[in-house]
Design a protein that fits this description.
The structure is a single chain. With 342 residues, the protein is of the alpha/beta class. The chain has helices at 15-26, 38-45, 86-93, 111-119, 160-169, 182-199, 206-211, 215-232, 254-269, 277-284, 295-305, 310-323, 331-338, and strands at 8-11, 31-34, 49-52, 58-60, 64-65, 74-79, 97-105, 124-129, 132-137, 140-145, 149-153, 177-178. α6 runs antiparallel to α8, α8 packs across α11 (295-305) and α12 packs antiparallel against α13. The longest helix is centred in the middle third of the chain and has 18 residues, at 182-199. The N and C termini lie far apart (53 Å). 49% of the residues are buried.
């Protein structure tokens, strides 16, 4: 199948899409990236995209255009935009998806549901990514650390195209794996992601928050609320990079959560990416986050099951208050989350 891939379209050339694009292009694959920031697109196409950090440093020219300059159709489209940009991106990219092509979501959240609704279940593939990367400036991305990369079909089947995508992604992450239960990984990332939203209420690093004697209790409670909803959905999340879902199941021994939190603090202490992308959205780039599409989505699903998730609900409120300039990232804001912890 590799010779049949043709050119791969990566929609969104930020921290995730840009990094994957640079590695695939360096491996010799035909890649075209799309990004709304014209200066970034010009830098990637011209002098090249500079990948920096402890993992590897190199510069790779990757053709990149703005959305209005995409022509033709593509059999493989990797979607790597922020969750709240998914619908708009789909409107622009669907005319460029070949009739027998598919979209791989390399995003955080449950965007596969939206993609499948608009493109079709058979034209959607899921992926879970947990490597650390930051978009620094046009033409420059920090690769802070390697992390889990998992690919799988939404219908739990393994097809020739799934195997092919695994081989393709291994040119980026050699330890990428295939799963027949991609939803288990996506829900695990939702729980971990809720914890990361919690760490972004302060200016302290992720590892500092996971090691903090008091804050880690609230972070664990966030994960527990997500796990209750996952169980109601019939999902059994998978572990990755220090996150152990079993530690946050209702009735789990507290020592399991302590061990998982220690592992998360250790994992995040070894990366050059000290803060989450959520923190960068709030504190550095001063823009809205994906809180509605990630944490808010869990709150919505919980409501459908009649499950109360007060901590997640409060987290959404606090992030919106930061986005609206009504709160700062601070210990006081984190305390406002803890104030309603059960």
């Amino acid at each position: 199948m590799p010779e049949q891939r043709g050119e791969i379209l990566i929609w969104g050339a930020g921290a995730i899409g840009g990094l994957i694009g640079a590695y695939l292009a360096r491996a010799g694959h035909q890649v075209l990236m799309v990004d709304t920031v014209a200066e970034h697109a010009a830098a990637c196409s011209g002098p090249g995209l500079a990948v920096e950090g402890p993992v590897e440093t190199f510069t790779q020219v990757v053709p990149c255009v703005t959305p209005g300059n995409v022509t033709g159709t593509f059999g493989i489209i990797i979607l790597a935009v922020k969750a709240h940009a998914t619908d708009d991106a789909l409107t622009m990219l669907l005319p460029h998806l070949a009739a027998d092509g598919f979209i791989l979501s390399a995003q955080n959240g449950l965007n596969e549901l939206t993609i499948a609704e608009r493109a079709g279940l058979n034209r959607t593939m899921g992926a879970f990514v947990n490597f650390g990367a930051d978009w620094i400036e046009p033409g420059k991305i920090l690769f802070g650390n390697r992390g889990a990369v998992v690919v799988g079909e939404l219908d739990a089947l393994t097809k020739p195209r799934t195997e092919d995508m695994l081989q393709l992604l291994r040119d980026f992450e050699p330890d990428a794996v295939l799963t027949t239960d991609i939803w288990a990984y996506l829900w695990g990332k939702l729980a971990y992601g809720a914890m990361l939203f919690g760490t972004a209420l302060t200016t302290d690093s992720m590892s500092y928050n996971f090691a903090h004697p008091r804050r880690r209790l609230a972070l664990a409670d966030l994960a527990r609320e997500v796990m209750k909803v996952a169980r109601a959905e019939g999902v059994d999340p998978k572990p990755f990079n220090g996150f152990d879902p079993a530690a946050y199941w209702p009735g789990a021994e507290p020592s399991l959560a302590e061990a998982s939190l220690d592992a998360l603090a250790a994992f995040n202490s070894k990366t050059a990416k000290t803060h989450s992308g959520i923190y960068r959205d709030l504190f550095v780039r001063k823009r809205r986050t994906e809180v509605d599409q990630q944490v808010g989505k869990i709150v919505e699903i919980a409501g459908g099951h009649g499950i109360e998730v007060p901590l997640l609900t409060r987290l959404v409120q606090l992030v919106h208050e930061i986005e609206d300039g009504k709160r700062d990232l601070s210990a006081e804001t984190f305390n406002a989350l803890e104030g309603i912890a059960p």
